């Protein structure tokens, strides 16, 4: 049986991961909002991604000229 400290360490790792994912999703959405309105469904899809995918999406959002262009990249990078 794992010790309490090991369980807490694992919980801390998950919380840090979730915090990083939220921050990255916020960054992606901030960039997208500079291009135009972001539909709620797109926001939900971005927020549902894991950190590694969000790293790629952040670059895609920075390079996009339109929200629609980004959505196509999301489909490519995250499946959809």
Overall 3D form: elongated
C-alpha-based Rg, rounded: 15 Å
Percentage of β-strand residues: under 5%
- Unreliable residue runs: none
Number of domains: 1
Gist of the model:
The chain is mainly α. The protein has helices at residues 4-33, 40-47, 51-63, 67-78. It is built from four helices and no strands.
Which key phrases capture this entry?
80 residues; mainly alpha; elongated
Describe it for me?
By secondary structure, this protein is mostly helical. The protein has one domain. It contains four helices and no strands. α1 (about 5-35) runs parallel beside α3 (about 50-65). It is elongated, with a radius of gyration of 15 Å. It starts with a helix and ends with a helix. The model has no long low-confidence stretch (mean pLDDT about 85).
Q: What topology does this entry show?
A:
Layout (H helix, E strand, L loop, with lengths): L3 H30 L6 H8 L3 H13 L3 H12 L2
Helix pairs in contact: 1-3, 3-4
